[in-house]
Structures
1.
Amino acid sequence: MEYRYVFGPVPSRRLGQSLGISPIPPKTCNYSCVYCQLGRTKTFTNTRQMFFPPEDIFAEVKDALNKYTDVDFITFVGEGEPTLYLGIGEVIRMIKDYSPLPLSVITNGALLYDKDVRRDLKPVSVLMPTFDAPDEDTWRRINRPHRDLKFEKVIDGLFAMRQEMEGEMWLEVMLVKGINDEEDTLYRMKEVIDRLKPQRVYINVPIRPPAEKWVEMPDKETLERATQILGAIPLGSMEEGTFYVAGDNPVEGILRIIKRHPMREEQIRKVAECKGWDVEKLLEDLASRDDVEIVPAHGTYFYRYKVWRI
Ligand code: SF4
């Protein structure tokens, strides 16, 4: 079966081997974060839609679960904001009825003010919402939200979800130098975190090429201080494992991953060596494609699917 919505399993720094589900069209989001690894938002919307039939997504998940035995988590993530998919609740229910594996959703959390979204997400084991800003001005600068979104409502939604959900909430804070890494901002974020009481807080930094070239990581001391203030776990210190690439077609295999998740050159090399593929030929083939771009960042090269940059 050729997969359209399911990818991986990919190694996740928090979830082990994670089978990904991308339930929305490329780069469809209600934020256009300055640090987004997928580039600027292409379809900017705050309206939930039934982009694809839930049964089609579930059929792929079922097939993949029968094929891969090393999956630790099933994760909704992908090419934008997964809660914009109107069928997410139905797919979650179908998977829960079929598999005992834990389910997680990586979300920007912007739609949690909508009680239907909260109902859809209620049964997941782990919800990973973004929390980058303690005030409206910082939020607008870093997340660049859709005009229909209101900061107060987004924060209220986060609190309502925390009250209603059955599983755990792991908050993710992305720190960008000069935007949300000052002590005063961090202490105000900490106040919100203390009231919200998520089970975990992770700090992330833009390690993959960001949407805006000027985005920089905070320096090491600032990151350590932020980790202390927020009582967080730094994601940057956690290593990504090895990617699982299905099938015997090298280019198709890598494309399936980089459509959702840019890969570093050394990760592609590792996969190719494990599969016994010709590494140099694979890199050449990828470089010659119009839909793949190679972006230098952090002393290496990232291979990324080009549609994200349109
Ligand atoms: S980082 Fe996530 S929330 Fe932000 S623009 Fe990218 S896909 Fe949307």
2.
Amino acid sequence: MKKRALFTTTVPVEVIFAAGYTPVDLNNVFVSGAECQRLVEKAECCGFPGSSCAWIKGLYSVVSEMDFDRDNDVFIAVTQGDCSNAKVLEEIVSLDTGIKTFIFNYPVDRSTEAMISEIGRFAAFLGTSVEKSEKKGAELSGLRKKLRRLDELSYLNPGLVTGFENHVWLVSSSDFNGDPELFEKDLERFIRDLEGKMPYFARQGRKKIGYLGVPPIIPVHQFFEERNATIVFNEIQREFSMSDDALSLAERYTQYTYPYSSVFRFTKAIREIKARKLDGIVHYVQSFCHRQLEDIILRKMLASDCPELPVLTIEADKPLSKIDHRLATRIEAFLETI
Ligand code: SF4
């Protein structure tokens, strides 16, 4: 029987593999399924307020419909660096399922020492060691480099890789769909196909868009793609892929921007925005998420560093299979200004 480690956001997956568990990013299960809307409604029927974010509702419902093996499955939530909702979710899961739970906290000060200690605590919980986890980290580094290659191909050839393809590959790397070897083989094949198509690819003058913010629950990528614009920078998804070189897990997980300060995060994002010579930025915010406020900081930093760059902030609450009319008009007007 497979031992599963379910989690609410990216955690050091190397530790999970080293301990012999299969990682399951609940966000991916929720958003890639065909029943997102039903899952959100189900959580509301179970008492989640309408004014809580759709992601946490979706995660709750996904867990509520899973079968658990108390001896083999564990649940990991991240609070410091992600979301206080996850703390309550951890308590609900513990009560409802009886499986072992763990709270992983990203150190506020991003210090290497604190990260080493947190990874050690995590490894001890799962019954492995930091050394074994580092070994797994070294084994995964080739796969992470391939994700970086995919990302390079995306911004060097807008449209050859669609914004959605880039998004899916990078976002799925939080758990490698539970099977890094298969994931790597599929990715290799995908990259080989792209490289074969490259000599015949005409750029078509597509607009290059950067997408900042948590992954969307509405089809933003496809909407841009259909309007001669490609999202060639998926900021948080790229962070999930951990594709920057790192000498150790502590270094890798303190370079990772998502759990730390907005200024740290956006400083790195702006570096990428400039390097990729983007034409515009879309900042996605999730309704009822504290991260909505980060829009204020992002806009201040962009106004100072890239004053000419058009920025559009969009917000969504519930999952939708189609962009609604009002938002469609706003995005189209934004594209006309580029
Ligand atoms: S979108 Fe925001 S509020 Fe919702 S789970 Fe993620 S961090 Fe928490």
